[in-house]
Amino acid sequence: MERTERMIRGYYRNKKRLNTSLQKLEVQKERIEQIRRDIKECNISLDTTISSIDYSVDRVQGSTVISAIERELERNIDMLIRELERAIRYKITLEYRIKRKEEQLMNLEVILRGLDQEERKLLELLYKDKKTYRQIEHELHMTRSTISRRKKEILTSLAEIL
After folding, report:
1. Is residue 28 part of a domain?
2. Cβ atoms 29, 35 nearer than 8 A
3. Are 14 and 109 in contact (CB under 8 A)?
């Protein structure tokens, strides 16, 4: 029965983590779109202290054909591209974790759907919301002994299935 309780606690804990991962994934997708927009629209602020051409001194052109502004622009675009690559890698990692968590939760979720609504509600209050017996008494209009008996019955039936 303790094993079953651990599994149910783990189920609700993993379900909460899954929701957190889904929210992180949405934020990551928005971040990727923002970086892509920045690259596409060339939304980059260049350093204003870049030196310009000094006409007071005669100079012979060296080997560089690219101006300082072009180098700065290229450097900033490269940074954005690297940031985009990191963001996409993190998004793929999140998607993999979400898929793995969903697969882990699927078996127990099917079994819990077999319970009636009152039994699921009792398990949610006990293990998901972590409410005390007194809080559950008020919410479900049951006595403490009824709650304990129902909990034991549910865990016993789940232990047989698992």
Report:
1. yes
2. no
3. no
Can you give the residue range of the structural domain that contains 129? Answer: 115-162
Q: Which amino acid is at 14?
A: N
Show Cβ contacts of residue 144 under 8 Å, excluding neighbours closer than 6 positions. Answer: 133, 134, 137
**Residue type at position 119:** E
| 15 and 3 belong to one structural domain | yes
Residue with tokens 């969903």: 102
Q: How many other C-beta atoms lie within 10 A of the C-beta of residue 89? A: 10
Between CA 44 and CA 51, with CA 48 as vertex, the angle to 5 degrees is 125
Q: Which of 1-5, 53-57, 124-128, 155-159 has the lowest mean pLDDT?
A: 53-57
Identify whether residues 105 and 153 lie together within a single domain.
no
Which residue reads 């409410």 in tokens?
A: 131
In whole angstroms, what is the distance from residue 61 CA to residue 119 CA? 83
Neighbours of 158 (CB within 10 A): 21
**Can you give the pTM of this predicted structure?**
0.70
Tens digits of per-residue pLDDT, 65-77?
Answer: 667 777 778 888 8
SS3 129: coil
